[in-house]
Every structure is written in C-alpha cells, then in structure tokens.
Design brief:
mainly alpha, flat, nucleotide-binding, Kinase-like_dom_sf
Length: 50
C-alpha cells in the first residue's frame, strides 16, 4: 500500500503498442487524487468503452 501511495502511477511498458484511447482511459483511472480521478460513470462514458 505504501508503494501505491508513495510512487508515481505505473506506466505502460510499450505505450506505442496501445491506442491513445486506452492510454487516456488508464490515465483517468490512475489519478492519485480521488477528487480529480474520474468516477465510474465518467469512465463508462469514455470513448474507449464505446
């Protein structure tokens, strides 16, 4: 739990192999500050899931 709190969010090993939509979706999920992080409803409306 400390690693999650103290270290930056994980990065994709090969971002060039993933779509920009997936990268954007994951970026919204991995924001540390809960008040800034997307809600489940926001994520369900993300273009990656459409």
């Amino acid at each position: 739990m400390r690693k999650i709190r103290d270290q930056p969010p994980p990065k994709l090993k090969n971002p060039h192999k993933t779509s920009s939509l997936l990268q954007g979706f994951l970026g919204r999920c991995l924001i540390r500050d809960p008040s800034q992080r997307a809600t489940a409803i926001d994520l369900l409306d993300h273009p990656f899931l459409r």
